[in-house]
């Protein structure tokens, strides 16, 4: 699965394991299982946050695990042109490729460890679709899309785009070398990832070797979520079992602990998880479809602005979904 890795993890900077006497461990509050569904033109997703209260997720709105799926030729699908307003989308591709474009000039290809971070702000149009080569050949596809809320004062800010290449992701080792951490955004133990965020937050993709334990510091003013991309293991000092497609929500504290089971599926080298945390915004949420605002009136205005073309138009050179 992981596209970004190293041959020798021992050469990486290490995240020091906190002193348990000084840094209280976060307890596990809940574990939920993501239901499966389809997005866009029909690509399979797991709805990672389904069934979890919004106040626990804050500042995060939604996260879809796209795949992991082995497409046959002609099967890969994406999304048509669609609007966004009021939040940020973070698209992280672990395997395969997506091409994307927006009405404010952002766009390109994201593949094998790249991240596309788009601040929709006051609004834009956007498309994400597999390239013609992937549609024709088929192949492995696996990614995530996370929606991060914007505070009221930033919801109508100018749209912004960050193209984070796989080579820019900060690679770290756990204290004993048993886990590889890819820091996409935020700070982990004094090490900061490349993503620039409106809302203070952290996003980490960790690969934990079979039988290894990872305990890392985590900001006490952030919430803490661990989602399993693949594999089996346990979370928290209480060692609650967790597996592919499940989300653990942690309570207050200063450290997170995740363990990989000694025995995994033969195709897996361990446990892969995404770790998320952010500073809660604590503002009302009015969310419908592609718009995340504070009030119902603002939602209505977003739809009216979209219908009137005020969120932008498809560029003359706008890409379109390729169909075999």
From TrEMBL:
Which intervals hold domain Pirin N-terminal?
44-148
Q: Which residues form the Pirin C-terminal domain?
A: 204-311
What CDD domains would the database entry show? cupin_pirin_C (cd02247), cupin_pirin_N (cd02909)
SUPFAM superfamilies the record matches? RmlC-like cupins (SSF51182)
Q: Which InterPro entries does this UniProt record tie to the protein?
A: Pirin (IPR012093), Pirin_C_dom (IPR008778), Pirin_N_dom (IPR003829), RmlC-like_jellyroll (IPR014710), RmlC_Cupin_sf (IPR011051)
UniProt lists the family membership as follows: Belongs to the pirin family.
Output this protein's name: Pirin family protein
